[in-house]
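Lay summary. Proteins are chains of building blocks that fold into shapes, and those shapes determine what they do. In this project we predict the shape from the chain. Here is one chain we studied, written as its sequence of building blocks.
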Amino acid sequence: MERLSFNPNTLKTPCYLVDEALLTKNLEILKSVAHSAGCKILLAQKAFSMFRFYPLIGKYLDGASSSGLFEAKLAHEYMKGENHIFSPAYKRYEMDEIVSICDHVIFNSAAQYLEFKDMVLSAGKECGVRINPQHSTQGGGIYDPCAQGSRLGITSDAFNEELFEGVSGLHFHTLCEQNSDALVSTYNEVERRFGGFFNKIKWINLGGGHHITRNDYDIETLVSCVKGIREKYGLAVYLEPGEAVALNCGFLVSTVIDIVENEIKTAVLDASAACHMPDVLEMPYRPEVIGAGKSGEKRYTYRLGGPTCLAGDIIGDYSFDYELKAGDKLVFCDMAIYSMVKNNTFNGIRLPDIAVVKKNGETEVIRTFGYDDFKNRLS
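And here is the predicted shape, written in a compact code that computers can read:
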């Protein structure tokens, strides 16, 4: 098959596979950006938590950002560097452990900051607060933290500087798979609304959603933006991309189990949109399949569906140069991000194996799942 560094026919399916050479290429780009801009870059674990690669990632990035205690523990155990955490709401019984392993704790409200700041500061750690620029650049939807009524971040109207004495930095995260022009317009709004507080802080975190490793990403504009912040305000600048770290590094290998026909031919796979690639349904989007085209583009068109009872467990319509049959392998692209971290066992569907392609070309299956993994989540 085209563009593949592995043989899908050797894998038991379904199987996620991450290519170490492709991952390293992304990391090299990110390290170069950090050097050029004079900023620090953190792995946003919410997108990619494959800790097998944390020692490698730690050689290129400055640490990790976490969305809760468990992610923070994973970074603490497997990756050197800084450990930042943000949660919309912290539980008191988790805070002792969070403070012991995180060096930056970012709060979502004045109430939580006032409740926990003494605990954080007395441990010699830094506090930050998340702000809401009220500047949507995505066109709405469930991924827009600046949507009307959003629970994420403090708006400028609600931002009382006196309440945030002791805060070391500000954090905003509003982008999703976007280019640097969206960052610039968002930062300009942040500066307009919150710039008066910049002389009281040491750092600013520009969040994630920056598709830095995408071919058409405008790195020069990003670097210029970061340098401008540093030179004007003397602030340290953080970026915390998730997708950009493992963008286009992963695959999901599946097998055609059956072909059914009802006005259109549907290939039923052992891979499920609902279970194994939930963003296909949530965003929604249609992932690329190696060797396939759009519906009607090639000679044979099929709908690709999953093995669950959900009628909407549909990945999309694709065309092929050949007729599909049971046993054929299909390879979905860009499946390292928001896949392993979000998958589930609905219907008792088995979780995909996890494999890596090493830099020497060797393929290794590093994790398999079975009935016990399904059972042990239940009671």
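What the prediction tells us: Residues 8-17+250-335+343-375 form a domain with the Lyase, Ornithine Decarboxylase; Chain A, domain 1 fold (CATH 2.40.37.10).
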